[in-house]
Amino acid sequence: MPSTATQAIDPAELPSAALPDGWTENFCNQCYSPESGAGLWFHLARLAGPVPMWRDILIVYLPGDRFLVAKGHGNGVHDRGPGSGMLSLSCEEAWQRWTMRFIGAVCDVSGDELRAGALTDQAHHVATIEMGWTAMAPVWDLGAEMQTQTWTQTHYEQACRVSGVIQLGGESIKLTGTGIRDHSRGPRDFGTVHDHWWLNGQFPDGRSFALLEVTGHTSDSHLLRRAYVSDGPDTLREAEVVSLESEMTSDGPVRHRAVLRDGERTHTIEGRVGQKMPFGMGEPNELIFGSTLKPPTVLRLWEGQTEFIWDGQVGHGLTERSLAKDVNV
Questions:
Q1: Residue 221: its pLDDT value, please?
Q2: Among 7, 30, 33, 136, fewest CB within 10 Å belongs to which?
Q3: 19 located within any domain
Q4: Is residue 141 part of a domain?
Q5: pLDDT value of residue 67
Q6: Is 21 exposed, middle or buried (0-12, 13-18, 19+ CB in 10 A)?
């Protein structure tokens, strides 16, 4: 269950009816299915400004370095959640169950196309998706510290069990596994960030963890460095980030090793990053498909499906990594 503070901020988990000037609202979900080797990442964002415009971004990860991608704009907010032109979220039970639905046109592209530069327009194919997210851990609320941030003012996230089906023409892909969902509100300016890591993983025994580290443009300025560990549906404990070591290439993160301290316990969690989706992040709040350094890009971003090892047990999750575009790796 969420904390009292989280409930006070967001009692029904629904989009705000009125945002302060310059604020955005963001819902982001991710999942991976070990059985099918497929995953999904999407982002629903209420863009800043007087027009109530929502942007939907969908990434489907398929075996063989194949991706289905879609991006659109609209205003499909409804009485149970956010929506845009193609994608909607419905809160079935606050803090416990959500349903995601997508009906729209996708591009069927390769990783080579995405790594070569900004994705160009091309043929589209109709796809339908229906997925359910069910809580497997309490909500991790980052609390009042978020009010010092420049990329949002409130943020919480939750590890979930996930199941559903992706339909593309005669092709049907089942996803049964785990993932996360998050929700944030506040100003969002990518130009204020030098780099960040966001790791989260879920394991067969019900454990989960997450780590979020955001660095500003001044030397060694950690705007945020937080983590949690959970043993299952009823426990969640803040953890100290002792260290985070990583290997990067020009195509993004390859592996990392996080050491977290939870009271007297130390946890070493290793991650191997698999299929990665590259983006250009533009100032103040733009996401461009493909690996590009052209304006308005200020950050390079990778969303990577990840295999984690924690105490010998294999789990799955997400590695999100951004890096200022002028930094060589």
A1: 64
A2: 7
A3: no
A4: yes
A5: 98
A6: exposed
CA distance 325 to 322: 9
Residue type, 309: I
Structure-token pair, residue 246: 């990583």
pLDDT exceeds 60 at position 153: yes
- Across 313-329, b (16+ Cβ under 10 Å) vs e yields eebbbbbbbbbeeeeee
Beta bridge partner(s), residue 181: 29, 158
Is the confidence at residue 194, as pLDDT, over 60? Answer: yes
C-beta neighbour count of 16 within 10 angstroms? 11
Is the pLDDT score of 253 beyond 80? yes
C-alpha span between 158 and 1 (Å, rounded): 10
pLDDT given at position 222: 66
Question: Please, are residues 188 and 154 in contact by the beta-carbon 8 Å criterion?
Answer: no
Structure tokens at 284: 């103040």
Distance between start and end Cα atoms, the chain: 41
Residue 174: strand pairing partners: 165
Instruction: State which residues form the domain around 171.
Output: 24-324
Shortest CA distance to 309 belongs to which of 248, 268, 277? 268
CA–CA separation, 302 and 280 (whole Å): 9
How many structural domains are present in the chain? 1
- DSSP characters for 22-53? T-EEEEEEEEEETTTTEEEEEEEEE-SSSS--
Would you say residue 17 lies in a domain?
Answer: no
Closest CA to 177 of 165, 167, 189: 165
